[in-house]
Amino acid sequence: MILLDPKNLTRPYPDARSAEIMRRTVDFFESKGKRRLLADYYDRPWYSDFLEFVGKERIFASMCTPAGEGAPDARWDTWRICEFAEILGFYGLQYWYTWQVSVLGLGPIWMTGNAALRRKASRALEDGGIFAFGLSEKDHGADIYSSDMVLTRDGDGWKANGRKYYIGNGNEAAIVSTFGRFEDDDEYVFFAADPKHPSYHLVQNVVASQNYVSEFELRDYPVREEDILHRGRAAWDAALNTVNIGKYNLGWASIGICTHALYEAITHAHNRRLYGMRVTDMSHVRRMFVEAHARLVAMKLFALRAADYMRSASSEDRRYLLYNPMVKMKVTTQGERVIDLLWDAIAAKGFEKDGYFGQAAVDIRALPKLEGTVHVNIALIAKFMPNFFFDPAEYPEIGRQDQEANDDFLFRQGSARGLGQIRFHDYRRAFEGVDLPNVKLFAEQAEAFRKLLQEAPPGPDQMKDVDFLLAGGEIFALVVYAQLILENAPRYELDADLLDQIFEFLVRDVAEHALQLANQPGSSEVQVARCHEMLRKPIHDAARYERVWKQHVETLDGAYAMNP
Ligand SMILES: Cc1cc2nc3c(=O)[nH]c(=O)nc-3n(C[C@H](O)[C@H](O)[C@H](O)COP(=O)(O)OP(=O)(O)OC[C@H]3O[C@@H](n4cnc5c(N)ncnc54)[C@H](O)[C@@H]3O)c2cc1C
């Protein structure tokens, strides 16, 4: 089974330590038990028990220190990061978040040439420290060009003044990697700030949760040369390159949340009897479960495949810059679809304080909005469209990247520019030889979209129309999503029935977005005609559907329950 079952961890690791990290993390939550987990969620204490556990077990030290910067078991290894993030999401987004913002805070540190700060970070991780990423500001949102955190010359160093907003772990971090600009030359800067310094003022926690998502102010905070992480273009690149690493983990939080919610939901619905039958005997409820499960398996297959490209990336192969934002925007919005489907099926049960579902239903909404909204990420991936469809390149085949290795390239990604020059392997190869009705239908829809772009590419006014761009971007995203799912299906020995079930909803999703694109006020006649070619009805096969229900979905009833 491809879905995570924490009581039966099966993911293979080349070393004992990685497997131990996963097992101990699961044990921490299972020993804590569901009652206390949920009581903490609703009472909102700071999660010091979790942080004590990860400190004592050196879990962040092993997972978040690149090889050569710390103990021998330390490495930055996306293969194991996937499951770690998934487990944390499975038990609660708050636990994932304190780790995630530590990952982000560490980005500019592991990318710096400032060896003393790297050593400080490594020691802090060994001591159980957490980190923070101080990029966002209250008035500027996604517009990070407009930072008001200003460093003014003061003797040999500077004084920093300004406020940051939405900064996770800003209360307790060992180092807050803070983004700002120099007053004299207006260059960007990343520097290390210390929450314990008297000039660092913690203003408030802006959210009501176990997380501390801080607003903080630096008032004449002294910054010395040795506190500087990056300046100028390098500071900008460090911000974007860090988000490139971090945004990938958002998809895994969604996958973890949906997996736990699915176990709970099916176990409830399948055992609840109404009108003398199981709730899951009602055709619409069964369909919701089959679709939720298919969407979740697709999320996982895609995110796993994206990891292969991330781990094998280099300055010559930057394809991960398309797949990572897709994990962020596509996998997390699919997570919302999964929860919506499950919630419709279990109705009132989803509100109860004793269930994980109530927490899942709220937290799943956060992921599409963090680290760049869905809009920002679609606008980003749209840059790749021309090369993706019309100028494919040859690359060596990338296999499953599950080796014990440090992902060196992530901390030397180089300039964040030149996205339009990145080339991709031909997506059509993934469809070749797959003899499944809905996969073939999808390939025809993808071809209609390619023809649309060839015959009637968006004109200058359409390029400025963000709604138009978003509708087209969603179809492009579906083609990439389908491609990587197909690449990964044989690697995970995915059953053909389940693969066709996945493509049933993918065909439907393309049709939905094609209708949206056709309905844009600015769409041309040729564009509308091509959109109509994409309005295809998926092929329903009752026998296949029944097998998927019986073999993959019904069997999840009672398959996992958290210790009380
Ligand atoms: C719980 C939580 C924790 C967070 N933790 C951190 C943290 O630890 N560190 C940190 O630095 N930040 C953090 N953030 C900030 C987060 O990254 C921002 O919320 C995000 O960057 C978007 O900014 P915004 O929500 O203010 O939206 P805005 O920037 O105000 O966007 C408003 C609207 O404009 C759209 N938009 C903006 N720019 C574009 C564009 N270029 N193209 C298309 N549409 C666009 C958006 O999609 C949105 O619909 C956190 C936020 C939350 C809610």
Characterise the protein shown here.
The chain is of the alpha+beta class. It starts with 15 loop residues before the first helix and ends in an 11-residue tail after the last helix. α13 packs antiparallel against α17. The site of flavin-adenine dinucleotide has 21 residues, from β3 and α11.
Bound molecules: flavin-adenine dinucleotide
**Span of the ends, CA to CA:** 24 Å
Shape: globular
**Which residues sit in consecutive blocks of at least 5 with pLDDT less than 50?**
none
Order of helices and strands: HHHHHHEEEEEEEEHEEHHHHHHHHHHH
- In which range does the helix fraction lie? 40-55%
- The tally of beta strands, per DSSP, is 10
Largest sheet: 8 strands, mixed
Quick description:
The protein is an alpha+beta fold. Helix content is 52%, strand content 11%. The two termini are 24 Å apart.
Features:
Butyryl-CoA Dehydrogenase, subunit A, domain 2, two-stranded antiparallel ribbon, alpha+beta, Butyryl-CoA Dehydrogenase, subunit A, domain 3, binds flavin-adenine dinucleotide, Butyryl-Coa Dehydrogenase, subunit A, domain 1, 564 residues
Explain the layout of strands and helices:
Layout: H1 16-43, H2 48-56, H3 59-64, H4 78-91, H5 93-110, H6 115-126, E1 131-134, E2 150-154, E3 157-168, E4 175-182, E5 188-193, E6 200-205, E7 213-223, E8 228-231, H7 233-271, E9 273-274, E10 277-278, H8 283-311, H9 320-346, H10 356-363, H11 374-382, H12 385-390, H13 437-455, H14 460-464, H15 466-488, H16 496-518, H17 525-533, H18 542-553
Parallel strand pairs: 1-4, 2-4
Antiparallel strand pairs: 2-3, 3-7, 4-5, 5-8, 6-7, 9-10
Helix pairs in contact: 1-4, 4-5, 4-7, 5-7, 7-8, 7-9, 7-10, 8-9, 8-15, 8-16, 8-18, 9-11, 11-15, 13-16, 13-17, 15-16, 16-17
Bound molecules: flavin-adenine dinucleotide.
